[in-house]
UniProtKB/TrEMBL annotation, chain A:
This is Uncharacterized protein. It comes from Pilimelia columellifera subsp. columellifera. Residues 1-28 form the signal peptide. Keywords: Signal. The keyword Signal applies.
TrEMBL record, chain B:
It comes from the Bacteria. This is Uncharacterized protein. Residues 389-448 are annotated as: Disordered. Keywords: Membrane, Transmembrane, Transmembrane helix. InterPro entries: PrsW. Pfam families: PrsW-protease (PF13367). Residues 415-442 have a biased composition (Basic and acidic residues). The chain crosses the membrane at residues 12-37, 44-62, 74-93, 141-162, 195-215, 227-251, 263-284, 454-474. It comes from Pilimelia columellifera subsp. columellifera.
Length: 184, 478
């Protein structure tokens, strides 16, 4: 009786585990990044209405680009660009302050902040990311934008500061556009 | 056939479930703490709201939806904790499914349909695994297809509590610092649109399919496999529909109509899709209630006659009888009638659940002290009703009703293998000398919904969706 029960338990555990282990294994075997064609815009999430046009040769990380939380992760010339978009932002200053606060929670200070504007006229700010001493944060560059009740946070890592961001990566950031949001 | 005492700790499944719940429950609490720590006010609000919703769910489930069988609290807790820990862990591992969709089809396709595929597949598998473990760990408590549905719903409840908390905490931290309003809006939307009709319903359907496949050994392998596939398929499809762009299209289609918000289309689609599943569960419930109410008589115990089953199994009949008694004999008789109803339900519950590993009733002469106590309560409640009916002259119809409650006789000494050295029934037990109303087991007739009832149900569902849709659009507007 006990052996039968044990075998059944094992079958349940193996069956349940297989449902996540099999896709994870197959996923790991397929290359994670896809090279993007020149000028092809990428939607940041679904229905948020935020897009950016990455430079030619950028690699889009398919595993780390999560539609459920409207995040896109691109790699270009060694820099990693992570763009996250949210809707319902009616107090831009509070949103940007909260974005910086969340970065500090992740172990990074934002310093040398200055205003910035995209080619489409979306206003925002940018600053260097400095790791909190003893924390897990990394150096890099931060940018935050708010337009039409949409908030966008850009985090560029694998660079020492904003001035070290490859120009084409910054061109991608400046290509961010905000279109009308889909209600449903 | 030899009846052996069941022992939870004697089964590997029991220990596996315990281990998963202790480790997984701890991990789940840690995850919730990490999510809730930066948003303390929203966390307090979300925990309070979800506790209220969970309590209401459990009360409605235990008191009205599942009134006959008594579910042990440790098993209910195990189901809810597993749903909020083990099943959540499996669900969290669904990311590679969406990544695979992006790699093999396109990022746009994964964006649109990713959550409609990855969440149902992984989450339903995780939750169904929990129901299977519960069946293996506590088999005597999951003896009917309806039990599979009930424990499935409980696993789904645990899952939805942790998931809703996670979404609320994330919403509170997404745009502004500790945004209680965003968390409250999200919770309101999730509770109104899918709390009971979401994960609890999906897992109830899958659990019923699993229980049918495991318990209905008298049926062919084909029909059992079909029931399992149907249960899991219904759960996955309903979940997928809820997460798919189809609900968005329904909302967009309905939105331009005058006096109707997009929410109406969204809700109507979800509710109408859930309706067939709810009807199947309702039929299973009815079958289980009738079976449970007839069980004491089937086992040769007094206390509940066929007439009582008719009254006890329907709320409307119960209310009608109660009102008739109130009119003819006053409040005291109604109270006594309610007590008798409760005592009879308790008797059915005690008969259905094992007593210290043994079946509660081994034979009409051998049953657990809990059954004896319940029989005694029935006898006392019946005497109280008789007394309440005596001082006044009853109308003929009500007198008949009252007297029909008084026909069964009391039961004497409880005897159970644990307390008694009497021969085991397998080796020859004796029937009870005072048993007065033995019934043969009968197939429980289950009322099928008629076409007019279905039309009314669909109309009511659309009407409810319209009302709730209006409420949600008002909330959004404010």
């Amino acid at each position: 009786m006990s052996w039968r029960n044990a075998k059944a338990v094992l079958a349940v555990l193996v069956g349940t585990g297989a449902v996540i282990a099999v896709p994870a294994t197959v996923n790991a075997l397929i290359s994670d990044d896809v090279t993007l064609m020149d000028g092809r815009p990428v939607d940041v999430g679904v229905g948020v209405g935020v897009t950016l046009s990455p430079p030619a040769g950028s690699r889009l990380s398919l595993s780390d680009s999560v539609p459920a939380i409207s995040t896109v992760l691109l790699r270009h010339e060694g820099a990693t660009l992570e763009v996250t978009a949210v809707s319902g932002v009616d107090r831009p200053a509070d949103f940007l302050a909260h974005a910086r606060r969340k970065l500090r929670r992740e172990g990074m200070f934002t310093v040398r902040l200055r205003p910035v504007v995209t080619r489409a006229g979306v206003l925002g700010e940018r600053g260097d990311l400095v790791p909190v001493p003893g924390g897990v944060g990394v150096s890099g560059c931060y940018a935050g934008f708010v337009a039409d009740e949409r908030g966008i946070v850009v985090k560029i890592s694998n660079v020492s500061e904003c001035r070290a961001v490859p120009p084409l990566v910054w061109v991608a950031v400046e290509s961010i556009t905000v279109a009308p949001e889909e209600e449903w | 056939m030899t009846v052996r005492p069941w022992s939870g700790p004697g089964t590997p499944a029991w220990w596996t479930l315990l281990l998963l719940n202790v480790v997984g429950g701890g991990a789940s609490l840690l995850l919730m703490t990490l999510l809730g720590w930066p948003v303390p006010r929203s966390t307090a609000m979300a925990v309070g709201a979800l506790l209220v919703a969970a309590t209401l769910f459990l009360v409605v489930l235990g008191r009205w939806v599942d009134p006959v069988e008594r579910r042990p609290s440790w098993l209910v807790a195990a189901a809810v904790v597993y749903g909020g820990s083990g099943a959540i862990a499996v669900g969290l591992g669904s990311g590679p499914i969406a990544a695979l969709m992006a790699k093999t089809v396109s990022l746009e396709f994964a964006n649109a349909w990713g959550v409609a595929v990855m969440a149902p597949v992984a989450e339903e598998a995780g939750k169904l695994g929990g129901v299977a473990l519960l069946m293996l760990a506590a088999r005597p408590y999951l003896a009917t297809v309806w039990s599979g549905a009930v424990y499935g719903a409980l696993v789904g409840l645990g899952f939805t509590l942790v998931e809703d908390f996670g979404y609320a905490a994330s919403a509170a931290d997404e745009v502004y610092q500790d945004d209680v309003r965003a968390a409250a809006e999200l919770l309101l939307m999730r509770v109104l649109t899918g709390f009971a009709l979401g994960h609890p319903l999906y897992t109830a359907l899958a659990g019923a399919g699993l229980a049918y496949a495991v318990l209905r050994v008298e049926r062919s392998i084909g029909s059992r496999a079909l029931a399992l596939i149907a249960g899991i398929g219904a759960a996955v499809l309903l979940h997928a529909l809820n997460n798919s762009p189809i609900v968005g299209w329904a909302a967009k289609t309905v939105d331009p109509l005058p006096g109707v918000s997009g929410w109406t289309g969204y809700l109507a689609l979800i509710y109408l899709a859930a309706l067939p599943g709810l009807i199947v569960l309702w039929m299973l419930r009815r079958q289980a209630v009738l079976h449970g109410l007839r069980r004491p008589a089937t086992l040769g115990l007094p206390g509940i006659t066929d007439g009582d089953v008719t009254v006890l199994s329907r709320w409307a009949s119960c209310r009608r009888e109660s009102s008739a008694l109130r009119r003819s004999h006053g409040k005291q008789a109604t109270a006594a009638f309610r007590l008798l109803r409760r005592a009879r339900l308790r008797l059915c519950g005690e008969v259905a659940q094992p007593y210290r590993g043994w079946p509660a009733v081994l034979s009409p002469a051998q049953y657990a002290p809990t059954v004896h106590k319940a029989l005694e309560e029935v006898r006392q409640a019946r005497a109280a009703l008789e007394q309440a009916c005596q001082p006044q002259h009853a109308e003929p119809a009500n007198a008949a009703v009252a007297s029909s409650r008084l026909t069964s006789k009391a039961v004497a000494v409880p005897r159970h293998p644990e307390h008694d050295e009497s021969p085991h029934p397998d080796r020859g037990g004796s029937s009870h000398p005072e048993r007065s109303d033995t019934h043969e087991p009968r197939a429980a007739p289950v009322g099928r919904p008629t076409a007019s009832r279905l039309v009314a149900l669909v109309a009511a569902t659309v009407g409810y969706s319209w009302l709730l849709g209006g409420l949600l659009s008002l909330t959004e507007g404010s």
